[in-house]
């Protein structure tokens, strides 16, 4: 028996859930992944749900940042809590809280004049849940990605410094049955105009 259905009423069988902003974002991402032939499962592990600015500020004060993140996670998990108020703090720390609130899907506001200025964080309809990864995990992901990118750049620099040539040619639309001798004769024109270029 379907939910709330009876002999005289269809119940919820004809009702559909409306798609909110998060639902629309997920559907847009699904369509893009399908169009670009990207497997979303392959990209789950390296997804970073925090802005680069949030991660930069976190790296400057890791221990303090972890304490604030813990406060955010406790607040996010408590459905009865709608507002979180932090103690007064310096401007750069308030900036971090505003950035982290944005990443969590919260609204935030600085209140009161200095030296009592503090941040209040509010749950909004766009808040769904706390990010699955911690800030520290995302910093490690970014550092690994930066290290991998740096090694690629270093390898390219080394190849350029050693003047090592590429070891292949790309043949676009070669005709069927092309022999190596025919290929050599076609490429010989290019070899004469580019000193040091050979084909083995």
Q: What do these coordinates show?
A:
By secondary structure, the chain is mainly α. It is about 50% helix and about 5% strand. It contains 6 helices and 3 strands; from the N terminus they run αααβαββαα. A hairpin with a 6-residue loop joins strand 2 (about 105-110) and strand 3 (about 120). Helix 2 (about 50-60) crosses helix 3 and helix 2 crosses helix 4 (about 90-105). The longest helix is centred in the last third of the chain and has 27 residues, at about 135-160. The radius of gyration is 28 Å and the shape is flat. The mean pLDDT is about 85.
Largest sheet strand order? 1-3-2
Distance between the termini: 74 Å
Shape: flat
Number of strands: 3
Number of helix segments? 6
What proportion of the residues form beta strands (DSSP E)? 5-15%
Task: Using the CA coordinates, give the radius of gyration.
Answer: 28 Å
Main β-sheet: number of strands, strand sense, barrel status?
3 strands, antiparallel
Order of helices and strands: HHHEHEEHH
Low-confidence stretches: none
User: What structural class do the secondary elements suggest?
Assistant: mainly alpha
Mean pLDDT: 83
Helix content: 40-55%
